[in-house]
Amino acid sequence: MVGDTPDQLTVEVRTHLLESARLKEEIAEHDVGLIVAAARLIAKALQSGGKVLLCGNGGSAADCQHMAAEFVSRLRRDFARPGLPAIALTTDTSFLTAFSNDCGFEGAFERQVQTLGQPGDVLIGISTSGNSANVVRATEAAVKIGMTTIALTGCGGHLADIAQMTIPVPNTNTLYIQEAHLAIEHILCSLVEQVLFGRGNGEAEPTGME
Asked: Does residue 73 lie within any of the structural domains?
């Protein structure tokens, strides 16, 4: 087989896992307060009758769909709860292809926010660079509407200048940023459930997204 030796592959696995773990430890050291504050903002909006919109590209688009599914379904099996209104703006292929073909992809999420967003709703924009033009424009539109805006990014980017709250991942490697984003997204869903419905009696456990 052409490629690295088994020893080199083993080193690659260990290096990746250790770096990913180190990055999460750094977030645990410095950004816990931001994550808790973001969860409280989301919970407050939902309590007041608002909804959550999410947008991102590629792997971040998948994160949007994953997170929306956890809100509408539930993250934990330890108690039943009503669904929480959340919409991933990445799922409507007919709209996305029609609008992008006619008007350009950079304005697609912005148009959805302008159409679906209401004052008091939340927009979660996910971008590993913090500079994705369509996510930036969607966030700008959400700010104008009076929505709460939360950005999940890597090392800053333009989103950090626009969003009401930014949770940065201090790394430039997209792989590690996305892995950290998924952990943060699960934590946000878990905290929102706890704020709105209590802790329940069992262990936190994903449902439907294993």
From this structure: yes
Instruction: Please provide the DSSP assignment of 37-64 as one string.
Output: HHHHHHHHHHHTT--EEEE-STHHHHHH
* Cα–Cα distance measured from residue 55 to residue 57, given in angstroms and rounded to the nearest whole number: 7
∠ CA 26-54-60, nearest 5°, is 55
The boundaries of the domain holding residue 90 are 6-197
What total number of domains does the chain contain?
Answer: 1
Buried-state track 75-111, b at ≥16 Cβ within 10 A, e below 16: bbeeeeeeebbbbbbbeeeeebeebeeeeeeebbbbb
> What pLDDT score was predicted for residue 150?
99
Cβ proximity of 184 and 156 under 8 Å: no
Residue 193, domain CATH: 3.40.50.10490
Q: What is the DSSP letter of 126?
A: E
| Residue pair 207/51 in contact by the 8 Å Cβ criterion | no
Res 75: pLDDT: 83
Distance CA 81, CA 4 (A): 49
Look at residue 205 and tell me if it is in a domain.
no
Low-confidence ranges of the chain (pLDDT < 70): 1-4, 200-210
